UniProtKB/TrEMBL annotation:
Keywords: Carbohydrate metabolism, Magnesium, Metal-binding
Name of the protein in question: HAD family phosphatase
Top-rank lineage group of the source organism: Bacteria
Endpoints of the signal sequence: none
Cofactor(s) demanded: Mg(2+)
GO molecular function terms listed in the Swiss-Prot or TrEMBL record: catalytic activity; metal ion binding
Family recorded in the similarity comment: Belongs to the HAD-like hydrolase superfamily. CbbY/CbbZ/Gph/YieH family.
């Protein structure tokens, strides 16, 4: 979702920078890049460590609550689509493709984002707080989505923008359409790199499922 369908990674940067300032510090660029694609708990731990603050469970929960409140404000102002994403999602629905939203974002914020994406745009949604702590890069988010869809992960194409997300999808056995947003992505045997979803023929996604040569 973040950085793949909607350009919300920049909003996360605003909220994280605001929290850092609130605590009297600033977030380093490297730590921000390390957070891309991560779940809330891991991101808050990285944030607190970067700021030189205690990173126990209570501190992580407090930071997560603060950042979630700020993100709720930012998400409520509306989310800009990534290039070609709105058209790609509409085309997938038109073709009758079964779709799952697999995101590291927590359910309350995802539901806000779905006000932009469309609550009926996906057959299933899997959020970062719904995988028993087995977040990306663990394969469980994509495995759960495949189970809910009733399909084999090997018959799925995952669209991802981060190294963490790509690793999760590939570990689950999915082919990956990799479209970088905030951080670069490298080539790989089970991934196809594109600059944006505007460059993708959704009707031809099945071609990505062929075994790598």
């Amino acid at each position: 979702m973040d950085g793949t369908l909607v350009d919300s990674e920049k909003l996360w940067t605003i909220a994280l920078d605001d929290y850092a300032a609130h605590r009297g510090g600033s977030l380093s660029q490297q730590t921000r890049e390390d957070m891309v694609g991560s779940n809330m708990t891991r991101s808050m731990r990285l944030l607190l460590v970067d700021l030189g603050l205690p990173d126990g469970n209570s501190e992580i929960a407090g930071a997560a609550s603060w950042v979630a409140r700020r993100m709720t404000e930012l998400f409520g102002e509306g989310l800009p689509w990534r290039p070609g994403a709105e058209e790609a999602l509409a085309r997938a629905k038109e073709l009758g493709l079964r779709t799952a939203l697999v995101t590291s974002t927590i359910r309350p914020l995802t539901d806000l984002a779905l006000d932009t994406l469309g609550h009926d745009s996906f057959d299933v949604t899997v959020c970062g707080d719904e995988v028993d702590g087995k977040n990306k890069p663990d394969p469980e988010p994509y495995l759960k989505a495949a189970r809910l869809l009733g399909v084999d992960p090997a018959d799925c194409v995952a669209v991802e923008d981060s190294p963490t997300g790509v690793a999760s999808a590939e570990a689950a056995g999915c082919a990956v359409l990799a479209i970088p947003c905030e951080v670069p992505l490298s080539p790989g045997p089970r991934r196809t790199l594109r600059d944006s979803l505007a460059d993708v023929d959704i009707a031809a996604l099945g071609e990505l499922l062929a075994p790598a040569a």
